[in-house]
Amino acid sequence: MKVGLFIPCYVDQFYPGAAIATLQLLEKLGVDVVYPANQTCCGQPMANSGFEHLTGGCNELFIKNFSDFDYIVAPSGSCVLHVREHLYDNKQPEKAQETAHKVWELTSFLTDVLKVESLPSKFPHRVGMHQSCHGQRGLHLSSMTELVAPDFSKPGSLLKMVEGIDLIELDRKDECCGFGGTFCVTEEAVSAKMGKDRVADHLHHDAEYITGVDMSCLMHMEGILRRQGSKVKVIHIAEILNSEL
Predict the structure, then answer these.
(1) pLDDT of 66-105, one tens digit each?
(2) What CATH number does the domain located at 2-113 have?
């Protein structure tokens, strides 16, 4: 298979280590990966702010960059969900829909497409996993505690394959961190309070690292941790799965 690597703009600018780890992990699992150099923002920030009608250029460029791949993989659940549900081009609607259906979040791609059952990864640290809302409720990467249904977590199942990891059980494992895209700008006080509560759960269980599938959520919590003077670090799940692989 030929996979196009879709790296969200904020990951490219602020957390390139997560992008590199995603590339290395896929290549070490035998995937032929190509990174289209002309890719830019997928348009999610504009859409979240009520300006989806201005994302046409983003959509056209995304289709141009990625339509020829068998799969499109990204280390960001929120960006994947946006493209899946909002990629549209009235000049080529069928091609847009076909491209949108090829987009996969990294951990879902590993579990559902590659069907990874083991990883020779090592990460001997105490880790708390944050279930981001877009990934959980939009992409169904994990079960929701308010539902009477079988418990599952695609990111969690992959982390359990990592040698030496001490994966903690949070009190509120699927609580929102408060980032919410542009919500953290328009409702900064509420966003910060939600983030402090989310961080406190991890700190209460003595986490050394907080991980997840969305660097946006982790970035939000990282800001809170730094302001509190905490030594706890955030790390994208790709960096853990790729560690000593």
Answers:
(1) 999 999 999 999 999 999 999 999 999 999 999 999 999 9
(2) 3.40.50
CATH class (in words) of the domain with range 126-241: alpha beta
Sheet containing 2-5: give its strands across.
32-34, 2-5, 71-74, 103-105
pTM: 0.94
